[in-house]
Amino acid sequence: MILELADWLIIISFLLLTLGIGIYYTKKASKSTEDFFLGGRNLPWWVAGTSMVATTFAADTPLLVTELVVKNGISGNWLWWNGLIGGMLTTFLFARLWRKAKVITDLELIELRYSGKLAEFLRGFRAVYLGLFFNAVIIAWVNFALAALLHVFFDIPEEQTIFYVAAAMVIVVIYSSLSGLLGVAITDVVQFVLAMTGCIVLTYLVLDSPKIGGIEGLVEKLPESTLNFFPYIDFGESNGSEILQNGVQMLTISLATFFAYVGVQWWASWYPGAEPGGGGYVVQRMMSAKDEEHAFKATLFFQLAHYGLRPWVWILVALAAIILYPNPAEGKEGLGYVMAMKEFLPAGWRGLLLVAFFAAYMSTISTQLNWGASYLVNDLYQRFYKPKASSKELVTVSRVATLFIMLFGLFATTQVTSLKDAFEFLIEAGAGLGAVLILRWYWWRINVFSELTATIAPIVGIIFIRIWNSGFFHTSQVFDNVSITDYEKLVIQTEKYNQIVSSIQIESPYSLFFILGFTTISWVLVTLFTKPTDEQTLQKFYERVRPQGSWKPIRESLKLPKPKNSLPYMIAAWFVGIALGYSFLFGIGYAIFSKWTSFGISLGVFVGSILAINWLVKKISEE
User: Fold this and answer.
1) Which of 275, 300, 564, 586 has its CA 20 to 30 A from that of 55?
2) Average of per-residue pLDDT values in the chain
3) Does residue 249 contact residue 73 with C-beta atoms inside 8 Å?
């Protein structure tokens, strides 16, 4: 597709604005690592929260949502909507704790909470593993999505797209290495507004076209079940999709799988961006907030915007794609979004939507670079190599680390298909770790051996299941379809492009239950049969964070009075927060489709939830 002058002016203006913001905040970011990686811990909640939302909006996100909707209808989004449950847990039980901890990275918490050489090893190992290797693979997937988009939209030969991706990364590394997190967060806000504006414009143009005829035409042309917000729960054992007319399917899951989604996966499994109790760039934004109140509000805003506000503009285009481009080839369902861009965007608007996609890409990559550099500098270089390094030196090293991660991520992009299996295995191996990450805040007895065991045990369980299924132990396969998780695949494909993204679908829940049970028994036994964390370390942690839960021996050793128990109010706020999030999500959907009775119910639940949360938060503060 050929861009006109208006398109190029929009794209160039956006790039200049982004670089300008980076240059503007360079001086402030140069003061210290706290300024470079946490924006001086002075971000207002709306900047920190919007930055979280922008980071999770990558170039491939609308295409993934399109594939889910084309294959399974609106209900297909439950493959990621279930994450709201864990997100609200992080909001009400952990956001304030992270801000109180006053660490620069979440890995720094390891040595604040645990003691001994193993704690040092765990912190250093994860700094390299997550900050460099795992981070590079994530960057590679995001880069690959952008390359595929460029190939489809501009007909750029696939072997040349790597050079365009490299140019985009250079722009990102310039402003992110100059301005640190503060510049990244401010550009995230700008980029998110631009990205959503472009998506809204596309949605309007597609729905307003004669081929669709607005919302009314959309509803008339689609099977009713395609518009259902909830999956069909089969009380048998089958998972899959019920095939409907026009090749459209409806998400169908077994009762056991439904329980795995709603009752297990959101807290038991670890994967980037959805760590139980918070982690990675989400925690980085919490710790960059002005205070505990701003950290809480930022995280709450993130949950509402991420799950409720953003998806509908993508879902509507995806529904239109079912009508406009029926019966797509397997693996190409997500391309309906790009085809709508090419067909319906006039001059000027093409540039705006391309800016939207570049903004989504840049917000994700800039965060991955800054967050990864924080691990390499704070948890590796300063902690183990040069503890007494000056602030100036650490900031310089941070900028070098940002560039190094960019180059490593670019190399990983060229190897992305060969890394697929290893990446999937590492994601699978996160099952069962979540319980320890949650309980380390609320039970003093959790120690470094608990976390190491919870990290290793799922890998052992996966290997056992795979050996069992191979028939090594028995001729029959007791576990059917037992890989812990299977990946709902988004393929941005013309000839050879195949991208796997991290939207996770449980194909058979019984393997998840097995891994979770094995892991839990393992880490509980190890915890009980190993020594607790050094008392002095626990005292330091308790004095700084003042967590609720089971901390009586440590509190008494400090001769501190028993605090009032606010945990019941926090748990109640979590449940109400879930109701708030889903009523917001579905309320918008019901309004779009003029289901006013359901909208009224959702609105009532939403308003009631706000009032209840306001009361509960006050009670928590009083305690």
Assistant:
1) 586
2) 83
3) yes
Whole-angstrom distance, CA of residue 385 vs CA of residue 381: 5
CA angle 379, 96, 604 (to 5 degrees): 135
Q: How far apart are CA 220 and CA 216, in angstroms?
A: 6
Q: How far is CA 61 from CA 95, 327, 356, 475, in A?
A: 26, 21, 12, 42
pLDDT score of 419: 54
What are the residue ranges of helices labelled H in 305-444? Answer: 311-324, 335-344, 349-376, 391-414, 416-428, 434-439
Cβ-contact 151, 482 below 8 angstroms: no
pLDDT at 500: 32
Q: What is the DSSP letter of 550?
A: B
Across the chain, which has 623 residues, the per-10-residue mean pLDDT values are 74 87 89 90 94 84 87 86 90 93 92 94 91 87 82 78 89 90 91 87 92 92 88 61 50 69 73 75 91 94 93 94 82 78 78 79 90 94 92 93 93 73 61 86 95 88 75 46 34 32 44 83 94 94 93 93 90 96 96 95 97 93 68
Query: Is the Cα torsion angle 335, 340, 342, 348 positive or negative in sign?
Result: negative
3-state helix, strand, coil in the chain (%, to 5): 70, 5, 25
Residues in a beta bridge with 467: none
The DSSP element (H or E) to which 516 belongs, if any, is helix 509-529
CA 89 to CA 592: how far, in whole Å?
A: 29
CB contact at 8 A, 251 and 76? yes
Q: How far is CA 510 from CA 232, 256, 271, 524, in A?
A: 19, 8, 20, 21
Cα(305)–Cα(597) distance, integer angstroms: 23
Confidence (pTM): 0.86
What spatial distance separates the first Cα and last Cα of the chain, rounded to whole Å?
61
